[in-house]
Design a protein that fits this description.
The protein folds into 4 domains: 121 residues, no CATH class; 66 residues; 154 residues, L,D-transpeptidase catalytic domain-like; 56 residues, no CATH class. The strands form 3 sheets. The chain has an 8-stranded mixed barrel with strand order 2-3-4-13-11-10-5-14. A 4-stranded antiparallel sheet has the order 6-9-7-8. A two-stranded antiparallel ribbon has the order 15-16. The chain contains 15 helices and 16 strands. With 478 residues, it is α+β, with helices and mostly antiparallel strands. Helices cover 38% and strands 17% of the residues.
Length: 478
């Protein structure tokens, strides 16, 4: 990834040099203002979730110290390269999100960074370039504000790592007060704080970590509080760069983002959140895979073709006990390899096993189908899709990691109608039927295929734009 980025930056700086007519933009005396603005930009790197060492750090330190360069033209070129790298990272993020399957092959290219830099320098608007290129969505700004708070706390002369041990919520619990200050819930470290005020701050921290907001310090809350501030800052920076990476594609179309740790689905367009829905994602043993793809069809009253592992490990033992009763209770059919429906009484179930199962089990469509009444399909190698569910009670949990890898969507019907507004009335009519059509599932093609990003971010804004830290359920950020 970094090699390709470096090659791209070299091409950009060559273009920039040609466009500038070999003119130097940083070192001549009449360029002092531009040079200082550039150095001020670089100095903001930490607050922007970036690493200042990526942008000609040693060279900038030498120039700030008054050390004259041996080769002015080459030094000016290196500063141009650093400037392009900085604004590219600010605009697109430092790297693409890691996914197991990349069906979109998405690379953000909505700005010509080199041309905009040249234009800003030529028109004397360089001081406004950062504001022009940064994403403007409220979620991005929320993450950036929290990065500023945590960075400032880490740079405090009195900063020290804190471990909360006691579950007492009063002014004697100094580590708790220190930690609440470091997390930005207290403006100063005061060990004279009233208990009511302290509990209110603890409730705010519980909300940050998706716990019941009762002001009590239980084991799970203490564990989250004791995650180092440096790690929290790293998680925030990761999320900030993911929002940058997504910014281009959001500007001209609707985009579905599922964040696995948050167990949430977000339908974005431009700077707006069109829909938020709670989801249920894969448990640790059967994780949901990060991926990118496009929604290509919506199926009303779908069949559920039971995955092989579920059929052999979970259903087969029950079927062996009483084949007809078990299959009837679950509304299951048994199909052979050609797709023909079989009479289950003709099968020797006792001879079958996890390694010997030449059948497919399919659940008939209907309101009690495991997929509910709607399924949103997109190509991927994991047999992952978005779907409704009859088990609505599971959405009430804060930590919703229960599935075998597919994604159950609480608001699957409103999502489908937003993706296919021309079909909204038809979808409503099918929903009101409350019974599967006799001819089987209804497939509605999606002509303008909506991008879907299934990502893994521990730090992420909720539907109100407030930052939360979610469980690192698959231990990807350890």
């Amino acid at each position: 990834m970094r090699k390709k980025a470096c090659l791209l930056l070299l091409l950009l700086v060559q273009y920039f040099t040609v466009a500038a007519g070999q003119q130097m933009y940083w070192l001549p005396a009449d360029c002092a203002a531009n040079r200082q603005t550039l150095f001020n930009y670089f100095a903001q790197s930490e607050l922007l979730g970036l690493d200042p060492h990526d942008y000609a750090y040693t060279l900038v330190q030498q120039l700030n110290a008054g050390i004259a360069p041996a080769d002015s033209a080459e030094t000016d070129k290196q500063l141009s390269l650093a400037a392009i790298a900085f604004f590219t990272d600010v605009t697109y993020g430092t790297k693409a999100a890691r996914v197991g399957y990349d069906g979109l092959k998405y690379t953000p290219t909505c700005y010509d960074i080199s041309a905009l830099l040249h234009q800003a320098l030529a028109e004397n608007t360089f001081a406004q370039l950062l504001n022009r290129l940064e994403p403007t969505c409220p979620e991005y700004r929320s993450i950036k504000r929290m990065i500023a708070i945590y960075t400032q706390r880490l740079q405090d002369s009195g900063y020290h790592p804190v471990n909360v041990i006691s579950n007492v919520v009063d002014s004697t619990n100094h580590p708790l007060i220190d930690k609440l200050y470091q997390l930005g819930y207290l403006d100063t470290v005061s060990y004279n704080i009233q208990e009511d005020s302290l509990r209110m701050k603890v409730r705010a921290a519980q909300r940050l970590f998706e716990f019941m907001e009762d002001g009590a310090l239980r084991r799970g809350v203490i564990e989250e509080l004791n995650i180092p501030l440096e790690k929290r800052l790293s998680e925030l920076k990761h999320a900030l760069n993911t929002y940058r990476w997504l910014n281009c594609i959001r500007q001209y179309q609707s985009v579905i983002v599922v964040n696995i740790p948050a167990a949430g689905l977000y339908l974005y367009q431009g700077d707006s959140l069109l829909l938020y829905s709670r989801t249920i994602v894969g448990k640790e043993r059967t994780p949901t895979s990060p991926l990118t793809s496009r929604i290509d069809e919506i199926i009303m009253y779908p069949y559920w073709t039971v995955p092989y592992n579920i059929a052999t490990r979970e259903l087969l033992p029950g079927i062996k006990g009483n084949p007809v009763a078990y299959l009837d209770a679950g509304n299951y059919q048994v199909l052979d390899r050609s797709g023909k429906i079989l009479d289950p009484t003709t099968i020797d179930w006792q001879s079958l096993s996890r390694t010997n199962f030449p059948y497919t089990i399919r659940q008939m469509n209907g309101c009690d189908n495991s997929l509910g009444i709607i399924k949103l399909n997109f190509f991927n190698p994991y047999s992952t899709y978005l779907h409704d569910t009859p088990g609505k009670s599971y959405f009430m949990f804060n930590k919703r990691y229960f599935s075998h890898g597919c994604i159950r969507v609480e608001d699957a019907i409103p999502l489908a109608k937003l993706l296919l507004p021309a079909e909204a009335q038809r979808i409503d009519s099918l929903v009101k039927m409350a019974a599967a059509p006799q001819k089987g599932p209804v497939v509605i093609p999606v002509k303008q295929k909506t991008p879907v990003f299934i990502l893994y971010e521990v730090a992420w804004p909720d539907q109100r734009g407030d930052i939360r830290f979610y469980d690192d359920v698959y231990n990807k950020f350890r």
